[in-house]
Amino acid sequence: MANETMQKFGFPDTLVADYRHWCVLLRPAQATLGALVLVCKDEARAFSEISPDAFAELADATAGIEGALSAFRPYDKINYLMLMMVDPDVHFHVLPRYSAAQDFEGTAFPDSGWPGPPALAKAVEPDEALRGRLVAALRAAWPDAAKMG
């Protein structure tokens, strides 16, 4: 069952990887190429409320994220932002950071905030078809096919 935050970020269409306690979604507003949302499936509204199993599995999820993003498009840095100002369920915005603009299938994805904080308001919003191809490319890069949704 998808929680409110998963639904807000396009689940199931944006699902890249699925774990027992976490899911990884393509962030529809691509502040940087390959931007993701890591959402906890637990009924938790604070980080301290997630289950011990979810905390343990977070290591697997972040290893998968970093492995997949490195295989998809090597990044210079990676930012995990736990903002939780609007969307209620525990989640991170995961932003690979690039010192140069990236291109995916003819669309430019600048990292407008580089080298400072990410510029979330300057995101590229790919259309449904391009979003689907981004999801497919990230799924193909995922290091553990058993974790796929």
Brief digest:
This protein is of the alpha+beta class and 149 residues long. The protein is built from three helices and seven strands; from the N terminus they run αβββαββββα.
Write the layout of secondary structure elements.
Elements lengths: L3 H5 L6 E4 L3 E5 L9 E5 L11 H21 L4 E5 L9 E7 L4 E3 L2 E3 L18 H14 L8
Antiparallel strand pairs: 1-2, 2-3, 3-5, 4-5, 6-7
Helix pairs in contact: 2-3
CATH architecture classification: 2-Layer Sandwich
CATH T-level topology: HIT family, subunit A
Q: State the separation between the terminal residues, measured CA to CA.
A: 13 Å
What proportion strand? 15-25%
Largest sheet: 5 strands, antiparallel
InterPro entries: HIT-like_sf (IPR036265)
Protein name: HIT family protein
Describe this structure as you would to a colleague.
- A five-stranded antiparallel beta sheet has the order 1-2-3-5-4.
- A hairpin with a 3-residue loop joins β1 (15-18) and β2.
- The model has no long low-confidence stretch (mean pLDDT 94).
- It is globular and about 40 Å long.
- It has helices at residues 4-8, 52-72, 128-141; strands at residues 15-18, 22-26, 36-40, 77-81, 91-97, 102-104, 107-109.
- With 149 residues, the protein is of the alpha+beta class.
- It contains three helices and seven strands; from the N terminus they run αβββαββββα.
- The chain has a single domain (4-144), classed as HIT family, subunit A, CATH 3.30.428.
- α2 (52-72) packs across α3 (128-141).
- InterPro entries: HIT-like_sf (IPR036265).
- It comes from Kaustia mangrovi.
- This is HIT family protein.
